[in-house]
Amino acid sequence: MLPPDGPKPEALYGLPSSVQFCTRCVISNQRPGSVVEFRNDPAARKPSILFDEQGVCSACRYADIKAAEIDWEQREHELRRLCDRFRSRTGAYDCIVPGSGGKDSAFTAHILKYKYDMNPLTVTWAPHIYTDIGWRNFHSWIDAGFDNVLVTPNGRLHRLLTRLAFLNLCHPFQPFIIGQKMVGPRFSALYDVPLVFYGENQAEYGNNIEDNFRPTMDPAFFTAEPNVDSLRLGGVGARDLIRDHGIRPADLNPYLPVAPDRIRRTGTEVHYLGYYLRWDPQECYYYAIENTGFQPNTERTTGSYSKYSSIDDVLDHLHYYTTFIKFGIGRATYDAAQEVRNGKITREEAVALVHRYDGEFPSKWIDQILEYMDLDITTFERVIDEARSPHLWKRTENGWQLRHRVA
Question: pLDDT tens digits, residue range 207-240?
């Protein structure tokens, strides 16, 4: 360990050098801010989670606002007016709902169709490797009464991008996140359906509270001139992908932002249903079980205690393992923090769950993951260890240990 008067260990990824945990939930100030993934622009990253003078994070403060200050009856009236404005009178699709058939997208599509009389087209950006339960839930979603377009990206390219994203960024989900963000607005433009609904605004879980008071997604997240020269995927410029890996420019189309003129022509508006209806992930789970046949997994999610979140993609397990490595925040922290805010568990219970499960290695899935990314375990371990920020991690005779744990 460093002597008390020695230099502070370096903080990578633009993270705060001093670690602070919320006094209300279990999230830390190391939670990364949102980022426009397709741009190589530091200005596109928003600040990480904010803490007030009482040590309470912005996500917990917004939970207070949701509970006591928002008029949810008025918000639902706004939703009904929005649906009235866009509802088709001819039987055509009148909104796009992106999702996988997990609890959140199942709730969103079902309640829009069967309570608010909309006719949604569901669109899915395919997982890297479907889990058995994820595939069954996807089909249960469709069987509950929805048309669906399953967008499966070029397998050779997507595997390559995932591999590069892991090697260069320790962020194997980056290409998936880009496709997932783009698929709703893209199909809005392709099918001339201007209204798109995602579930909750990720600002609920941190960043500036004011972001939650806008019902629509910032267009910067999905629209820009589709310029291959400015596109970076997996930490590599698109021109390098074309030159070094034999990728055709046309293969990159699904990862490009949607052109502003197409968005204007369609009049695309991307709304968060969580702005209009009080969003609670566990209540979405109960609703999806009852109305779409959604099933939880038979075992808990690796790195957490829950059985119903992030269960459709094998690489989800790697994604949350890498967030633990880079930011000291794993799946259990994310799950427990939001359940404290929603009154499902106490902070004391959350701390115990984080200590028990956070950062669990995805040993059950590692062979499939390595095969998918065409990596050996030695390379994998090297990337993981190089991604550990010195201000979060120390090496001891018993291996790597976090310098700071929630208490």
Answer: 788 889 999 999 988 999 988 888 899 999 999 9
Distance CA 118, CA 70 (A): 25
Scan for tokens 């997208």, then name that residue.
105
* Contact between residue 251 and residue 154 where contact means Cβ atoms under 8 Å apart: yes
How many angstroms separate the CA atoms of 282 and 289, rounded?
11
pLDDT of residue 2: 44
Q: In total, how many domains does the chain have?
A: 1
In a domain, 2, yes or no: no
Alpha-carbon 265 to chain mean position:
28
Q: Please, what's the b/e burial string for 59-89 (b: 16 or more CB within 10 A of its CB; e: otherwise)?
A: bbbbbeebeeeeeeeeeeeebeebbeeeeee
Question: Does residue 35 form part of some domain?
Answer: no
Residue 37: which pLDDT band, with cuts at 50, 70 and 90? low
Instruction: Name the β-bridge partners of 272.
Output: 198
Handedness of CA 389, 391, 395, 399 (dihedral sign): negative
First to last CA, the chain: 21
The predicted model gives 165-194 an average pLDDT of 96
Our CA angle for 73, 77, 82, nearest 5°, is 145
Distance CA 283, CA 274 (A): 12
How many CB atoms sit inside 10 A of residue 38's CB? Answer: 25
Residues 269 and 196: beta-carbon distance below 8 Å: yes
Q: Checking DSSP bridges between strand 236-237 and strand 147-151, what pairing results, if any?
A: unpaired
Task: Indicate the average pLDDT of the chain.
Answer: 93
Question: Do the domain assignments include residue 29?
Answer: no
Residue 221 lies in a domain: yes
Domain with 193 in it: 42-365+374-402
Angle formed by the axes of helices 155-169 and 174-191, nearest 10°: 140
Q: What are residue 197's phi and psi, to 5 degrees? A: -120, 120
pLDDT band at 5 (very low <50, low <70, confident <90, very high): low
